[in-house]
Amino acid sequence: MQFERRADVSVTLLVVAPLAAITVALLLCAGLIAAAGVSPITAYGEMLRGALGSRLSITETLTRAIPLIFTGLAAAVAFRARVWNIGGEGQFYIGALVTAGLGHSLFASLPAPIAISLLLAVSAICGALLLMAPVALRLRFGVDEVVVTLLMNFIVLLFVGLMVEGPLKDPMAFGWPQSVPVDPSLRLPRLVPRTRLHIGLLVALVAALTVWIVQARTVFGTEMRAAGLSPRAAAFAGIPLPRILMSVAFLSGGLAALAGSVEVLGPTGYVTTTMSPGFGYAGIVVAMLAALHPAGVVAAAIFIATVFVGADAMSRATGVPSFIADVIMSVSLLAMLTALLFTTYRIKR
Amino acid sequence: MSTTLDILASASLWAAVLRIATPLIFGVLGALICERAGVLNLGIEGIMTMGAMSGWLTVYWGGSLWFGLLAAALSGMAFGWLHAKLTVSLGLSQHVTGLGITLLAASLSYYLYRMWVQVGDLPPTITPFEPIRFPVLSDLPFLGEALFAQTAPTYLALAFVALTAWILARTPLGLAVRMAGENPHAVDAQGLNPLAIRTGAVMAGSALMAVGGAFLTMAAFNSFFPTMVQGRGWICIALVVFASWQPGKALIGALLFALFDAFQLRLQTAIPGAPYQLFLMAPYVLSILALVLVARRARVPEALMQPYRRGER
User: Fold this and answer.
1) I need a labelling partner for B22 at 20 to 30 A (CA). Which of A109, A172, A258, B78 fits?
2) Structural domains of chain B in order of their starting residue, each with its CATH number
3) pLDDT tens for residues A275-306?
4) Nearest to A321 among B114, B230, B234 (CB)
5) Do B284 and A32 lie within an 8 Å CB cutoff?
6) Which residues of B have a CB under 8 Å from any CB of A?
7) B281/A154 CB distance under 8 A
């Protein structure tokens, strides 16, 4: 098979690509569901009903999408500049841990809006530093940041375990390893009463809009894209590559940490070592399905959240293992990568 | 200090070193073969999980242990083929595709395990590989327990180090693999197909990775559970750099790493009260340090991570 580059990448193709990828993933996974002895039509029906069938389930799906929007933006921002941040999971946990640690008592005396803004900012900075370290190692020593950020995820998770079983352990939790809760006055208000949906959704949407504006309308956005497209040409054009990459790391690590911070301020209120079902890794899939576009990230995050919330409900109803959600997600990723290729290349006849 | 010496002087420590090193040896060899051919295979973490599951399941369903290892190798090969199709034939990003392979292989392992195996309060078990007793050798003091009371896959891993080193350095096949990783255009000019060579290398390497995973469920332990690979795949990727892509050094790296790991496990019981997480962090910290120390000196295969498209530079 021979490929040739398309003259230009059409927007239509970029919109069709994720839809095609998702369709392929759902078709392939239908085979796995059938192998479990359940009709795929029934199973997918249950998934839709479980994720979008009622007011409550829709708010639950949107709640699940909030951290995915943040981690998706984190991956999208980084990947565009070819900073391979696979450490979203670790940055998420650092954000959550800092928020719970400072929000328990230290910041509780401040007025709530100020305290919450400070918590978000400090968490984001900690997450940013966590990613700037490996990017600095790459710039200074040529160490591949993929492996370092992956390994750091394990270190951070162990550190969180150490904290929630030690200094930050909640004495009221009957021995469960969970952190002290943030002060109730600092919890984010609910968006819809009597559901878990909180105003973190608006914060996430504002973040997506901000990233969009930065990427499309600022010099820094152009420099970021240039650094990703061709580092050598960018350096030749006088763009200070190290500074741009560190700024990208700051932005990306900060966004991923916000996911953890908002998750603690919103639905959970405290930190456990199992609070993330892989939000950091799922963010990578979200970013790729979005073709790295901020608006696409919001849509892709809602799709992935639908799959996960729906799969839980479907698993309870039919007995198909809920791991099917992870399979659907990973097949979508691989299908999307393939589809993206055909938006930039065509098969030569 | 005396604790340290006591620990180092025990034969059981050295027996543990070889045991802990075995999955790493298989994994690092697999990753090394892929990378020498020019393909970074970040599917390793998932492929090891798939190997652990499929090998275990084959034995659970009544197959022999060796048949289980073969099944694991075949499952690894299948995912290696997929990784090669996407990164070699289509030239997709090796970073993101590898992660996709890891997510897919791991989640598929968990899904199939849940679908086919009834898990009660405790995960079901199999009869794993038993340590081999050698006449005379196994009865030697110290050395007998440290070196000659391992399971068969451990000796197989050591044999594969020698085999890989020999093939890469001394055979036409090895030369072709190395050329595909250094200069695929030259391979093409020789009338060989660089895409086919890369695909074959990735499949062979992935088979070894999967066997490394299978060691966990079929020798080190006797059941399968999610997340049991615990980042060993990523550690192998770091070890390849540490070994600057040489099989012999890869063996040394894996052994050093395992020594450290076995040591911290014993230190953990010797120093009660210190948080156990600190000890568990050590291997990951060590891997990052190793990467930083050697990164500047490492001689990376010239065409690593560069897709080859005929007629395109």
Assistant:
1) B78
2) 2-118+135-295 (1.10.3470)
3) 999 999 999 999 999 999 999 999 999 999 99
4) B114
5) no
6) 42, 82, 86, 89-93, 95-97, 99-101, 103-104, 106-108, 110-111, 114-115, 230-231, 234-235, 237-238, 241, 275, 277-278, 280-281, 284-285, 287-288, 291-292, 295-296, 309-310
7) yes
The shortest C-alpha distance from B108 to chain A (Å) reads: 6
> What CA–CA distance (Å, rounded) separates B87 from B90?
6
For the ranges A28-32, A242-246, B216-220, B277-281, which has the lowest average pLDDT? B277-281
User: Looking at the partner chain, which of B91, B104, B285 has a beta carbon nearest the beta carbon of A334?
Assistant: B104
Put simply, the answer to whether A330 touches B237 (Cβ < 8 Å) is no
User: Per residue in A168-183, pLDDT tens?
Assistant: 998 887 778 899 999 9
Q: Which residues of A touch B89 (CB under 8 A)?
A: 1
Joined tokens for residue A154: 């394990």
Q: Are B126 and B218 in contact (CB under 8 A)?
A: yes
What ipTM goes with this model?
0.94
Q: Which two tokens stand for residue B266?
A: 């014993």
Q: Residues A81, A220: contact at Cβ < 8 Å?
A: no
Q: Is A158 left (phi over 0), alpha (psi -120 to 50) or beta?
A: alpha
State residue A349's pLDDT score.
Answer: 60
- From B82, B86, B99, residue closest to A284, measured CB to CB: B99
Stretch among A201-210, A333-342, B5-14, B80-89 having the lowest mean pLDDT: B5-14
Q: Which two tokens stand for residue B260?
A: 């450290």
Percent of chain B with pLDDT over 70: 98
Mapping DSSP to helix (H, G, I), strand (E, B) and coil, where does residue B151 land?
Answer: strand
Asked if residues A88 and A256 have their Cβ atoms less than 8 Å apart, the reply is: yes
Per residue, what are the HEC states of chain A?
A: CCEEECCCCCHHHHHHHHHHHHHHHHHHHHHHHHHCCCCHHHHHHHHHHHHHCCHHHHHHHHHHHHHHHHHHHHHHHHHHCCCCCCCHHHHHHHHHHHHHHHHHCCCCCCCHHHHHHHHHHHHHHHHHHHHHHHHHHHHHHCCCHHHHHHHHHHHHHHHHHHHHHCCCECCCCCCCCCECCCCHHHCCCECCCCCCCECHHHHHHHHHHHHHHHHHHCHHHHHHHHHHHCHHHHHHCCCCHHHHHHHHHHHHHHHHHHHHHHHHHHHHCCCCCCCCCCHHHHHHHHHHHCCCCHHHHHHHHHHHHHHHHHHHHHHHHHCCCCCHHHHHHHHHHHHHHHHHHHHHEEECC
Phi, psi of A87 (to 5 degrees): -95, 20
Q: Identify all chain B residues contacting A152, using CB atoms and an 8 Å cutoff.
A: 284, 288
